[in-house]
Amino acid sequence: MEPERFQQHPVLNAFARIRLRFIRVKAYSSELRVYKQHVKKNKMSDAPKPNTLAISWFYGEHQKKSLILSPKYQRNAIWSIGQKCFLIDSLISGCPIPQVYINIKTEGLGKEKMTIYEVVDGQQRLRAILEFLKDEWSHVATTAKSYPVSDLYKKYIGRKYSDLPNDIQNTIWEYQIAVQELRGKDAQEIQGMFRRLNYVVLSLTDQELRHSQYFGEFAVTVESLTKEPFWDDFGLFTRRDSRRMKDAEFVSELFIIALDGIQDQQKTLNNYYSSYDVVFPQKSKTVTKFKQIISSLETIKDTIRNTRFRNKSDFYALVAAVNGLQLTAGKPLDLSEAQDDLKNLSAALDQPAEKLTGEAQEYHTTIIEGGNKLAKRKRRMEILHDIIVKHI
């Protein structure tokens, strides 16, 4: 609606219309200018440029401390020795490896000015290669059992880089890595690009990511246990759990109880996959112990399936309690006499929080105050231990 005074004066009205159009055109011109500046700033010349660089170049820049392998937006280095050996096998057998993204920038002034190569994506691959060139580890025999290595790798099991024949050393030294070079990108732009590069990885669950990274002893053991039919007896997992590998992740946590006891949330899970990727000396003993725990729990499978103990936090505590009891007994336990007390605890916990008393109240507190924290898990385990031990 135009101002009333313009409606009353045709000349002023016309003038106002012209002026409004002029303002709109000027505003459009301003927006267009800003857009052109944006296009100019983000022109294609700033896009990543493909290149190839020899491993010798990466080694040289790393020695000069101009190759930055751990920028703040990169993940921590968690590769197992098996993954590292498999990567070196790719180099000596001439297989391609994923490209590396590097942000090139300058730091310092005058004589102190130097070029810095910041690894945006690919630091774990480069770190493994540089470690091998420095003789920090050798080809491991058990990698050949867990990974589809080449016959060439098998010839040099047990050897470090300096122990390899000259032609194999040169093959690694001169191997060309595909590189995408970035220039003129600030920290915010680099972080955005890193998120884009890892978008698919970030959309995976933690266990799907582990499944894509680890192929060795621990991973194979857990995935084999996940397929055991006894899980159906307890009603722990849904189809969605299986689709997103949540079942394998939880079985991993339970298996670690038999190996090393209760853990703080999932903080150590990746470490177990990595540490026991190639060599898992306790495998047979731990699998036997774990299956004995499950055998004990099968004596109360109906109670588990029909009470809150089918919930993962409660089932975890139950496994931990039985694990402690079996350390003394050394064999599977018949828990059937403890069923009534376990059912009573479950029924009590179904009540409103304000009506809870005694061990039910304490148990409830451990759930609502961070159910997967180490101290809370231990306290729940102790409560269940005290209930069960009276009946065995």
Structure write-up:
The protein is α/β, with parallel strands linked by helices and 392 residues long. The protein has 22 helices and five strands. Strands 1-5-3-4-2 form a five-stranded mixed β-sheet. Strand 3 and strand 4 form a beta hairpin. Helix 12 packs across helix 15, helix 15 crosses helix 17 and helix 19 crosses helix 22. It is elongated and about 75 Å long.
Short structural description:
This protein is 58% helix and 8% strand.
Give the key terms.
alpha/beta; 3 domains; 22 helices; 5 strands; 58% helix
Which helices and strands, and how do they pair?
Blueprint: H1 4-8, H2 10-41, E1 49-54, H3 55-63, E2 67-68, H4 81-92, E3 100-107, E4 114-121, H5 123-133, H6 143-146, H7 151-155, H8 166-173, E5 176-183, H9 187-197, H10 199-203, H11 206-213, H12 217-226, H13 230-234, H14 239-243, H15 246-260, H16 269-275, H17 283-298, H18 301-305, H19 312-329, H20 339-349, H21 358-368, H22 374-389
Parallel strand pairs: 2-4, 3-5
Antiparallel strand pairs: 1-5, 3-4
Helix pairs in contact: 3-5, 12-15, 15-17, 15-19, 17-19, 19-22, 20-21, 21-22
